[in-house]
Design goal:
single chain, 196 residues, mainly alpha, 3-stranded antiparallel β-sheet, 67% helix, 6% strand, flat
């Protein structure tokens, strides 16, 4: 149990969480809404290209690109694949199962470690990867039409910085949540001590 002095210290140290008033904003011009529009337009074009070539059964196109870039078009770690695609290992498991069923990848037991499964592109997977790479290049060309190389670099830098800012914000939010939990525990402890 927390001591009274410790509980008081936590309560007194809790910083104010008041935030300044934010002026009204035209939401349609907010970067997050622009990003959503861009993402939706990109996904629409991607889906249309996949449909036009019969590749709609490729559940995780980025997975083919990653495997194609691996030595021998092979990976021995679903966990690393998940990290590279920024998805959960469970998502990769489901995607691999679907892609294996559709003939894009195979799994084989690693000769040096029977517990590991090597994930390999099939010929169908390699061909799909080449097509998808071409689609990606084409979409990037369309998306950046009229941009100078400097503007493209600036755009990439802006997105990187925004991502880093939000990752830092998420960490700060986690800290605030922990502080609030400690504060609530300290307040409960003080209330219990005052009842005695």
């Amino acid at each position: 149990m927390m001591q009274e002095a410790e509980a008081k210290r936590i309560i007194e140290e809790e910083p104010s969480l008041d935030h300044p008033k934010i002026p009204p904003v035209d939401f349609s011009e907010m970067p997050v809404n622009q990003w959503r529009r861009l993402s939706t337009a990109h996904r629409t074009c991607s889906e249309m290209l996949l449909k036009s070539t019969g590749l709609t059964d490729v559940s995780q196109p980025g997975l083919l690109a990653i495997l194609a870039a691996c030595p021998d078009n092979t990976s021995d770690s679903q966990k690393i694949l998940a990290e590279q695609l920024h998805v959960t290992p469970a998502t990769i498991t489901v995607s691999l199962r679907s892609m294996q069923r559709n003939g894009y990848v195979t799994k084989a037991t690693d000769d040096s470690d029977q517990r590991r499964k090597r994930i390999m592109l099939t010929e169908k997977g390699k061909e799909a990867s080449r097509l998808l790479s071409g689609f990606s290049d084409m979409l990037d060309g369309e998306m950046y039409k009229g941009f100078t190389p400097e503007e493209r670099a600036l755009c990439a830098d802006f997105f990187r910085r925004m991502t880093e800012n939000l990752e830092e914000s998420a960490e700060n939010i986690r800290k605030i949540i922990k502080r609030r939990e400690r504060l609530a525990a300290a307040q409960a402890e003080m209330a219990a001590l005052n009842e005695d």
